[in-house]
Amino acid sequence: MSALTLFYVTFANRADAERVAEAVLAEHLAACANILAPCTSLYLWHGALERAEEVPVLFKTRPMLATRLHARIAALHPYELPVIESWTVTADEKVGAWAEGETR
User: What is the CATH number of the domain that holds 81?
Assistant: First the structure.
């Protein structure tokens, strides 16, 4: 088995999600970006309950690139406070080798 780091990041719209995904893929910081179906997010912002439709993206990378990928997503993200969550997962060795080959 091989370790990967997954990032879960929400965007205001599909265009922003695709722009950031294409940038980090072009820079080989992630091997894959899964742009998911829009979701409804409920959250507290400055003491008020907010509701927004957002587009979540799952980014896949090697653990050694997690810090760089996080910083790059934050730099490209249009939100004042982008929520960039990550966790380490176990993947098949072939998937790990693919991710290693596509990132640097």
Answer: 3.30.70.120
Quote the pTM value: 0.96
Could you list the beta-strand ranges (E) of 1-104: 2-11, 32-35, 39-45, 48-61, 84-91
- The string of pLDDT tens digits covering residues 1-24 is 999 999 999 999 999 999 999 999
**Boundaries of domain holding 79:** 2-102
Identify whether the C-beta of residue 57 lies closer than 8 Å to the C-beta of residue 11: yes
For 43, the token pair is 């959250």
- Which residue type occupies 13? N
Task: Please tell me the total count of domains within the chain.
Answer: 1
Token pair of 64 as six digits: 């050694």
* Residue showing tokens 């970006």: 33
Residue 25's pLDDT is what?
A: 98
What type of residue is 39? C
